[in-house]
Amino acid sequence: MNVRIRRFFSYCVDWYVITLILDIIVRIYTRFHFGEALSLSLDSLDLYSAVKLLLILFVVNCIYFVFLPYICNGATIGKKIFHIKIVSQNEKKVSLSNLFAKEIIGNIIIEGAFYPMSNYISNIILLLFGKNVVQILTYVHILMGLVSMMLILKNNKMIHDYIGHTEVVIENN
Hints:
Layout: H1 3-34, H2 47-71, H3 77-81, E1 84-88, H4 96-110, H5 116-129, H6 131-155, H7 159-164, E2 166-170
Antiparallel strand pairs: 1-2
Helix pairs in contact: 1-2, 2-4, 2-5, 5-6
């Protein structure tokens, strides 16, 4: 199986895992603070509660996509299952700054349409600026995600790989 296919399936696993984790946190937080478990959307919360919850979710997201690959030789759960890993461009161990740039700037801010954390950020933007701003942001994220998918077909690197100075390689056993 080539690295592009492995990346796709590892992304599916990681997307499911992080979505499940973040949803459980949202449900626990809303149950504890409001007496009922609310699901994925933060826009039904007041701004203070939504921002506080967003910060918690952001930390958990960073633990999964930044610190876990850092301590696990470039692998998340999905990457481990499909025997691939993130390395720096010179194929050495990836640094925290590489992973942070890749995840925060690349995945969440630029390619946000396909990342659960971006959905929560969009909820806060909805509370602050309204639906029109969120729609524009969504279109930009979708466009950037499509551009990134075209790049991976050409040279196996997505926008977030360029930003983080990383690449994904098959793990040598």
